[in-house]
Amino acid sequence: MFHTVEEIRAMSIEELDAEMGEIRNHMNDDDADIGALSALVDAIEARRNALREQEEARRALADRVASGSAGSTVRSLGGSGETRHGIDSAEYRTGFLKTMLGLELSREERDAVAYVATTGDTTNGAAYVLPRTMLNQIWDLIDEQHAILGDIDLYRTGTILELSKRTGITQGDAATVNEAAANDDEINVFAKVTLSGKDFSKHVDISYAMAKMSIDAFESFLTSEIADRMGAVLANDVITQITTDYDSTNNAVTTASSGVVKYTDVAATLAVLKNAKGQCTVYASHATIYKYLVAMVDTTGRPIYQPNAQAGAEGALIGCPVKVEDGISGNAMFIGYPKQVVGNMVQDIMVESDKDIKKHVITYAGYARFECKLMAPKAFAKLTVKP
Question: Per residue, what are the HEC states of 85-113?
């Protein structure tokens, strides 16, 4: 199922991301070898660092070639003499960042930016799509800051996604039958779910003076700013959709006592869950976790809440990882199966820039188009602490 350390040392960035996704999906399996998985993650991080160093060296060489300090030969494709580099290239990365800063581009950087803009060499067709390395760094940061976005079944399709959701079986469900007798023909009731996306945006203004920062500093600033704010609004949308879609009639539980969560309250919440898929997880705000869950004890005074070494988890409660999601307001928490939430990135995160010559600021606007749906209303339950 997993690649070896030696195989990882020869992987590309995309293959490393896929391998990390496999590890994330299976690290909670009962038979998971945590030591071996940790070694694989170490190898993945080492390979990523090596690739970044190679990119830096390639970029420096490209700058030298463009300035004539290393000769006049320029790499080309197809024998036409025209350089072409996609969104994975170091040339497009530096060309994109210099374009955002309004700096002069080298010949190869101009060719790379023009190539991406005119040929559609991108997953979403945007003229100024984020370089692949930046986009992957942003999603890594988002997954770290907002665990629920890494837990749901997220597709970055770049197009509208249509799904069929079974709402009932009116005839022919599994049943006990007499010997040599046929089961009734199955008649299912399906509803079509279309994830066409909703628009999400974030912009930030920086002064002309601030725009004089180095390219590496600007990349770090842009990456962290987009991940921080776009990640928050996307995570909030997932929570809002779960709140809308879950079975609020049967799967809403209130604690028996005021201002305290007991073992029986959590057990009662778990009892109403159905449609299990993947790891059952508890999501709550930082304040709710440390005010109510950490304080839980059994009848002998021993703590019920346990520390958890799993990445992104604050602890564990009755076998369920507990994760921070500050988009859940009030003294409430959601418990359920995040893999029953399907999300679709119709437009992956992109960035555009514009200048205001009156205010002498540059506006950087991040944009994404995303939509999600809870496919099984009973896969989540809400536990509210009685005031």
Answer: CCCCCHHHHHHHHHHHHCCCCCHHHHHHH
**Which two tokens mark 280?**
């059952």
CA distance linking residue 113 with residue 84, whole number of Å:
9
Q: What are phi and psi of 320, to 5 degrees?
A: -100, 125
Strands, E assignment, 61-173: 153-155, 161-171
Q: Identify whether the C-beta of residue 322 lies closer than 8 Å to the C-beta of residue 316.
A: yes
| pLDDT-derived band at 122, boundaries 50, 70, 90 | very low
So what's the pLDDT on residue 120? 54
What pLDDT is stored for residue 167 in this prediction? 56
| C-alpha span between 353 and 364 (Å, rounded) | 5
Q: Please name the helix (run of DSSP H) or strand (run of DSSP E) that holds residue 215, with its range, or none.
A: helix 215-245
| 304-318: average pLDDT | 81
**Domains of the chain as residue ranges with CATH:** 1-71 (no CATH), 79-121 (no CATH), 241-342+375-386 (3.30.2320)
